[in-house]
Amino acid sequence: MARPTTSFRCTECGWSSIKWVGRCGECQQWGTVVDTSEPTVRVAAVRPSTEARSITEIGAEAVAHWPSGIAEFDRVLGGGIVPGAAILLSGEPGVGKSTLLLEVASRAASEGQRVLYVSAEESVSQVRLRAERTRALHPELYLAAETDLATILGQIDQVQPQLVIVDSVQTVSSSLTDGLAGGPSQVREVASTLIRVSKDRNLPVLLVGHVTKDGTIAGPRLLEHLVDVVLQFEGDRQTALRFVRAHKNRFGPTDEVGCFEMTGDGIAEVADPSGLFLSRARTPTSGTCVTIAVEGRRALPVEVQALIVKTQAPQPRRVVNGVEGSRVAMLLAVLERRAGLPLSGFDVYVSTVGGIRLLEPGADLAIALAVAGAYRDKAFPVTQAAVGEISLAGEIRPVASAKQRAAEARRLGFATLIDSQAVHLREALRLAFAGSTVEKVDVPDF
């Protein structure tokens, strides 16, 4: 008779081991490896109460959204909050998650919805002070400072709200589950219980989630699979601009972006952020170029600035802000090899205006033109913009949403848009420098 073997398996990723370990060797999660050596129980088939139907026989029902009162927040959600939806909002500490959700709670209460705001990190007096500062006071907004899951469920039964906000899911614990608050087992139990209540009562629930050092949502990955919507609240704490992006949305698109601005009175939505990412210089400046970026479905003009400084160091510095460092390094190599710019002896600094991050390849041409303008100390006309992806061969490739970018450029008054019609980087440089000014350095033409 074969002796039964003991096996352990991770509940998150399925990694197996012959002995117990505290940390999974595959997904690096703590406390997820459990003993699976118990005998397997086969599940018997049960006659279903309703038979499966052809998809063509099932009618399509429109998802009903009710507006939260914040247009930019509703834009990201796909039109508003869906009854029974579980929404997860994550972001770095201090970026303004609690301020945003308190504003959402106040606007929803003003629309006639009874809202329960559960704060597991602050006292009710602290939340009340912030609500008074941001003018978010409303009699239909109820506050509760609870960290026990059972007590929160009791508050829901007593208040009978139409919207529940829990700040945050990592600080709530259940007495029926072992482990500390924030652990994988506790987060899984708390989230699954709140989502089950949300579905049973057709009650929308907004959960706040912490993030790790690398920017991912803390806790098990199961948390993102359980919820209906995953929102990311982004922004530099040194600047006032904030973005809300949808990484997952079962009720709408995932390519929308909401723009907000942190003020002394709280958070304000920015309906038209076209001028936030442009400098206010009235005269053309060398080393600057404007590109038309697409954030979600919205085209935005973004100014890219570059500065180069002669250096004697064996390894010149490459400092970037708002753009990818690897992308800039590739563009510098293309400029030196395909356009003949000797940049290996210069320190190069590239940054965007307004704190926005440009991650799409459509900003390649603007970055290259800004660096070239800084090298030749030439300023481009303020009515000129550039959009295009640059290959290693120096070719300019077309980008997505080209018509939308061109229409936005015309609307904002950009008379010249250099794009993939230039075909090659050298031709784009000739077109860009054709109307440039302030030449101070004599270098060969492109």
Structural summary, described in words:
Belongs to the RecA family. RadA subfamily. A motif (RadA KNRFG motif) lies at residues 248-252. This protein has 446 residues and is α/β, with parallel strands linked by helices. The protein has helices spanning 71-77, 97-110, 124-133, 149-159, 184-201, 222-226, 325-338, 364-376, 402-411, 425-434; strands at residues 8-10, 16-17, 33-35, 86-91, 115-119, 141-144, 163-167, 205-209, 229-234, 241-249, 257-263, 266-269, 288-295, 298-310, 318-321, 346-352, 384-386, 389-390, 396-397, 416-418. Strands 6-5-7-8-4-9-10-11-12 form a 9-stranded mixed sheet, with helices on both faces. It has a 4-stranded mixed sheet with strand order 13-14-16-15. It has a 3-stranded antiparallel sheet with strand order 2-1-3, with no helix packed on it.
Question: Quick gist of this model?
Answer:
With 446 residues, this protein is an alpha/beta fold. It folds into 3 domains: 1-37; 71-269, 3-Layer(aba) Sandwich (Rossmann fold); 288-434, Ribosomal Protein S5, domain 2 (2-Layer Sandwich). Helix content is 25%, strand content 23%.
Tally of strands: 20
Give the H and E element order.
EEEHEHEHEHEHEHEEEEEEEHEHEEEHEH
Uncertain runs are 437-446
* CA radius of gyration: 27 Å
Give the full name of the CATH homologous superfamily of the largest domain: P-loop containing nucleotide triphosphate hydrolases
Instruction: Predict the CATH topology of the largest domain.
Output: Rossmann fold
What CATH architecture label of the largest domain applies? Answer: 3-Layer(aba) Sandwich
Q: Quote the distance from N terminus to C terminus.
A: 82 Å
Level-1 CATH class name of the largest domain: Alpha Beta
